[in-house]
């Protein structure tokens, strides 16, 4: 038996080499490792620029869309919301799906794995105890995940995980109660799990996807992959006016010289 990811890889490989006039590629970058995704992007680039054929590329990967596509269609609930140049449509998408101070309502999201026992129902970011709608490199933030038990009863051994990916799909950060051994032995039926990042936010300016999962007894009971896309804005990480963008992650550092 093949996994769903293997079926997607096989289907893409066959379709890409059949030389169709129009190639429909639907979320192929959502599976496979970085090397497979790189090969997919390379093949699609070859098909359009060398062979001169058309690709209809369906994806949440903003970097890939901007790299491959000249024209873009934004769909919302199965309806066309905007058509135009890729740069304009992506900008419109980000403005219409922002991180807001009121938070993100996730209760009705259908693109989740699980959700029968417990659901992630909201997400927001706090700075100094207050909700914020902007994230800057170098800030001190707390990621907050609202949850709800479907049976209305207290939850034993509740855990939460959250990852941060580049919009290209490259995994950068994993925060998880299991790593810090902070699983909640008894949790109320409804609540908010807060993950404080105990350091300056290290990611530089750019677009990032947030995912999140809920765990009971180390079994994942709910997961949303593309919970929200956030835009990290340029910040003064080192407090010296030099807005470093030379690496994807900034680290606090202190340099010294010793005589030998």
From TrEMBL:
Could you tell me one molecular function GO term of this UniProt entry?
ATP binding
Q: Which Pfam families match?
A: Wzt_C (PF14524)
- Keyword ATP-binding assigned: yes
At the top level, the lineage of the source is: Bacteria
**Residue span(s) of domain Wzt C-terminal:** 110-233
Q: Which UniProt keywords apply?
A: ATP-binding, Nucleotide-binding
PANTHER family from the xrefs? TEICHOIC ACIDS EXPORT ATP-BINDING PROTEIN TAGH (PTHR46743)
Q: What is this protein called?
A: ABC transporter ATP-binding protein
State the species of origin.
bacterium (Candidatus Gribaldobacteria) CG_4_10_14_0_2_um_filter_41_16
């Amino acid at each position: 038996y093949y996994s769903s990811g293997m079926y997607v890889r096989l289907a893409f490989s066959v379709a890409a080499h059949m030389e169709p006039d129009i190639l429909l590629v639907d979320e192929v970058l959502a599976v496979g490792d970085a090397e497979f995704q790189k090969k997919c992007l390379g093949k699609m680039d070859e098909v359009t620029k060398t062979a001169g054929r058309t690709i209809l590329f369906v994806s949440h990967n903003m970097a890939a869309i901007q790299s491959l596509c000249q024209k873009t269609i934004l769909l919302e609930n199965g309806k066309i919301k905007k058509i135009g140049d890729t740069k304009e449509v992506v900008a419109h998408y980000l403005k219409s799906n922002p991180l807001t101070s009121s938070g993100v309502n996730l209760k009705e999201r259908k693109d989740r794995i699980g959700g029968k026992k417990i659901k992630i129902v909201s997400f927001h970011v706090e700075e100094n105890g207050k909700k914020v709608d902007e994230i800057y490199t170098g800030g001190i933030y707390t990621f907050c995940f609202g949850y709800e038990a479907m049976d209305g009863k207290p939850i034993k051994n509740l855990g939460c995980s959250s990852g941060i990916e580049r919009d290209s799909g490259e995994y950068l950060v994993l925060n998880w109660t299991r790593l810090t051994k902070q699983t909640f032995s008894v949790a109320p039926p409804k609540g908010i799990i807060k993950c404080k990042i105990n350091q300056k936010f290290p990611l530089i300016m750019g677009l990032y996807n947030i995912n999140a999962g809920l765990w009971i007894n180390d079994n994942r009971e709910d997961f949303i992959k593309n919970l929200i896309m956030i835009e990290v804005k340029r910040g003064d990480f080192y407090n010296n006016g030099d807005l470093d963008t030379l690496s994807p992650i900034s680290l606090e550092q202190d340099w010294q010289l010793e005589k030998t």
